[in-house]
């Protein structure tokens, strides 16, 4: 997963990463928001989910302390990061700033 993850976030296209855990209630609230967002964005940005329990090395590398944490990567760099549930309108506006 790690090599593939590095390849994905090194894209010039913005990549929204949802750092989540199966046991996390707010993560379950975030999931349908991201699904709607993906449909609205079409192919303009990529959205991936990283389970912090299954990928602790990735979570540690990006200092993920709570879930859900959303981060946007572009060309391998973190351009935005926020913990907690974020609504679709805000996410859309943030992603559009990085297109």
From TrEMBL:
<feature type="disulfide bond" description="Redox-active">
    <location>
        <begin position="24"/>
        <end position="27"/>
    </location>
</feature>
<feature type="site" description="Contributes to redox potential value">
    <location>
        <position position="26"/>
    </location>
</feature>
<dbReference type="InterPro" id="IPR036249">
    <property type="entry name" value="Thioredoxin-like_sf"/>
</dbReference>
<keyword id="KW-0249">Electron transport</keyword>
<comment type="similarity">
    <text>Belongs to the thioredoxin family.</text>
</comment>
<keyword id="KW-1015">Disulfide bond</keyword>
<feature type="active site" description="Nucleophile">
    <location>
        <position position="27"/>
    </location>
</feature>
<dbReference type="GO" id="GO:0045454">
    <property type="term" value="P:cell redox homeostasis"/>
</dbReference>
<keyword id="KW-0676">Redox-active center</keyword>
<keyword id="KW-0813">Transport</keyword>
<dbReference type="InterPro" id="IPR017937">
    <property type="entry name" value="Thioredoxin_CS"/>
</dbReference>
<dbReference type="InterPro" id="IPR005746">
    <property type="entry name" value="Thioredoxin"/>
</dbReference>
<dbReference type="GO" id="GO:0005829">
    <property type="term" value="C:cytosol"/>
</dbReference>
<feature type="site" description="Deprotonates C-terminal active site Cys">
    <location>
        <position position="18"/>
    </location>
</feature>
<protein>
    <recommendedName>
        <fullName>Thioredoxin</fullName>
    </recommendedName>
</protein>
<feature type="domain" description="Thioredoxin">
    <location>
        <begin position="1"/>
        <end position="99"/>
    </location>
</feature>
<dbReference type="GO" id="GO:0015035">
    <property type="term" value="F:protein-disulfide reductase activity"/>
</dbReference>
<feature type="site" description="Contributes to redox potential value">
    <location>
        <position position="25"/>
    </location>
</feature>
<dbReference type="InterPro" id="IPR013766">
    <property type="entry name" value="Thioredoxin_domain"/>
</dbReference>
<feature type="active site" description="Nucleophile">
    <location>
        <position position="24"/>
    </location>
</feature>
<dbReference type="Pfam" id="PF00085">
    <property type="entry name" value="Thioredoxin"/>
</dbReference>
